[in-house]
Structure prediction request, 206 residues.
Amino acid sequence: MLRPIAVLAAALLAASACSTAAPTTSSAPQQASGPAATATTTAATTSTSAATTSTSTGPAPALAPYVAGLSHVVRASGPVTDGGAIIAVAARQLSATGREVDVLSWSGAAWATTAALPLTYPYYTLAPDLPVQVADVTGDGRPDFLVRVAAGDNEPGVVVSADGGAWRLVPLAISGPPSPGDVYAGRDPSFVEGHLVTRQNDCTPD
Prediction:
């Protein structure tokens, strides 16, 4: 059963931000236990087979070559534990309008893509300079991922979660049925102490 949309809305905190004020900093996100929980992985430009990985290689060192074998990866997380599993995500910009977040899983011998989640309109560009954050913000005891995108004067994000049993982009509408664009959280969201935190620009131009 999918968790209500209000699960994240109830955890949403707003903080003011003005262009003349000092930048707001976020505390380190709550991490799921496991190797290299906060590490980010950058795709290499060389062609590497993503099909198999030797059983003598652990999940952390095997992740980089697997991600390198995927096309058009902009940003990826490090491996994190999800119960008895080890998972990661990779954000890919496949075309002018095609963006997706792939959920990767470690079988004990190799990485594989277990879910591909297309990002919806308005097809923001993925943000290459911002790491994927990991924390449990849906309250199910499992890791959620925050993947950032670039949109004009701020960088929204999508929350990737399996809180209802299947991996999805979590809709963030507070009331009424969600529309496709409701998966984007802005402005400049982050995971802070188990919450999804955004900033509101309440500055009044002169």
Q: What stands out?
A: The longest helix spans residues 59-69. The radius of gyration is 17 Å. Residues 71 and 187 are 29 Å apart (CA to CA). Residues 6-18+25-200 form one domain.
